[in-house]
Design a protein that fits this description.
single chain, mainly alpha, 0% strand
Length: 71
């Protein structure tokens, strides 16, 4: 997976550009991807993690839907 993320530095303000870069990387999920790839994950552990993430996403969607519908 090749992902190009670029940030322009304006008026030599490197701190602001670094904050923007970190925000973009967070939004793209690069930090999470690096954390997952740091160590080997057994296929059974990967399946278990993906299943729990799916359940968490479904619960979050239900919560948002109920909040939006006024329950």
């Amino acid at each position: 997976m090749i992902l190009l993320v670029s940030v322009h530095v304006r008026d030599n303000n490197v701190e602001q550009a670094l904050r923007a870069l970190k925000k973009k990387m967070q939004r793209e999920g690069l930090f999470r991807e690096m954390k997952l790839r740091r160590d080997y994950e057994k296929p059974s552990e990967k399946k278990k993690r993906e299943r729990s993430e799916s359940v968490r996403r479904a619960r979050k969607m239900d919560r948002k839907r109920k909040e939006r519908d006024g329950f």
